[in-house]
Amino acid sequence: MISIRNITKRYGGGSASILAVDGVSLEVGAGEVLGFLGPNGAGKSTTMKMVTGFLTPTSGTAVVCGRDVVEDPVGVKSAIGYLPEGAPNYPDMTARSFLDFIARVRGLSGAEKKRKVDAVVERVHIGGVLRQPIETLSKGFKRRVGLAQAMLHDPPVLILDEPTDGLDPNQKHEVRHVIRAMADRGDSGRAVVLSTHILEEVEAICTRAVIIAKGRVLVDGTPAQLRAMSKYHNAVSVTLVPPINAAGEPVNLAGELATMKWVAEVEDQGVRHVPVSPAGPGGPRQSCTLLAKGGRPLLADVTSLAKSRGWTIETVSVEAGRLDDVFRELTQKEHVRAGGAA
Ligand SMILES: Nc1ncnc2c1ncn2[C@@H]1O[C@H](COP(=O)(O)OP(=O)(O)OP(=O)(O)O)[C@@H](O)[C@H]1O
Ligand SMILES: [Mg+2]
């Protein structure tokens, strides 16, 4: 539904020009919710502005529902609902008159217009603020009015620039639910592209994630594929009851765990003493996270080592990997590389 083809944007000219987007190519299909991630200034908003026809690419193009944004920006706009960064324009309009205005621009009138405006007002819970001028709304309500405007005409493609920025936790949850439901509609699945800095949002609603930095795509994959790139992929966190040495002290097992064949690194959380409780006996506990070489499964080796040494395992869990870790690793490496080259 969306095909971004080698799109590039250079702001300004001469030596002071900024290459904000540098040859981005992506395909997004029906039913997909693509999370667009990247550090501040990575080029996310600029890419979205070009795909939605609000900014002309320096080169390359995007095709949305078969319409080329360079040749037919108006055609593309009719297929897209777009939530830009920040608050909606027209600060003196009330939320109600703003939505009515957008509905008319979208070609809606009469009973259909009323039905669609009412439906979207209900969806993003703004019934209580419809009479207020937009400039007097709180940040979260401005954001909700912006979302209502984007979803009003039930478009096949939604481009949402930080849709949950500034929302309270209830609204974040609600808006994620609405976005997911928009993409899922069995018969007529929609394509959604959203930018976010909240990695938990990617886990919660995105079927795919793209990380960009300095205007270039660094990775493109499912959240599970991204997590598998983390050094914590298949890491085992274990809490053991350590043995007591001749001096009556608990033995720190981190060193022994580190000698296991497929352990790359041990994060030692140390030995702590737990008091006796109804949950179990008190005494020393050793906690460690074992990072796996090449993400190999470690659990069986950990349990068999503990068994052979007679250590009691109190808790053990396996991690899928951490998106924040992958994000930092990729984007900071990029930062160092680019800085080194300068
Ligand atoms: N109108 C403009 N004129 C000049 N440079 C711009 C303009 N808009 C954006 N830029 C620059 O382009 C680069 C990309 O900005 P963009 O807003 O696309 O980043 P972003 O990924 O959306 O960042 P954020 O996470 O902070 O929203 C930045 O270096 C920014 O300063
Ligand atoms: Mg932005």
Which key features would you list for this structure?
2 domains; 342 residues; Rossmann fold; binds adenosine-5'-triphosphate; four-stranded antiparallel beta sheet; alpha/beta; binds magnesium ion; six-stranded mixed beta sheet
Global shape? elongated
Q: Give, in spatial order, the strands making up the sheet with the most strands.
A: 6-7-8-3-9-10
Order of helices and strands: EEEHEEHEHHHEHEHEEHEHEEHEH
Total number of domains: 2
Q: Look at the structure and give the CATH class of the largest domain.
A: Alpha Beta
Distance between the termini: 38 Å
Low-confidence stretches: none
> What would CATH call the architecture of the largest domain?
3-Layer(aba) Sandwich
Gyration radius, in Å: 26 Å
Q: Report the mean per-residue pLDDT as an integer.
A: 90
What's the quaternary structure here?
single chain
- Can you count the helices? 11
Largest sheet: number of strands, sense, barrel closure: 6 strands, mixed
Strand content: 25-35%
Report what the structure shows.
The protein has 342 residues and is α/β, with parallel strands linked by helices. The protein has 2 domains: 2-88 and 146-227, Rossmann fold (3-Layer(aba) Sandwich), CATH 3.40.50; 236-318. The chain is 34% helix and 28% strand. It has helices at residues 44-51, 73-79, 95-105, 110-123, 139-151, 169-184, 199-205, 223-227, 254-258, 299-309, 323-341, and strands at 2-11, 18-28, 33-37, 59-64, 67-68, 80-83, 157-161, 191-195, 208-213, 216-221, 236-241, 263-274, 283-292, 312-318. Strands 6-7-8-3-9-10 form a 6-stranded mixed beta sheet, with helices on both faces. Strands 2-1-4-5 form a 4-stranded antiparallel beta sheet, covered by helices on one side. Strands 12-13-11-14 form a 4-stranded antiparallel beta sheet. It is elongated. The mean pLDDT is 90.
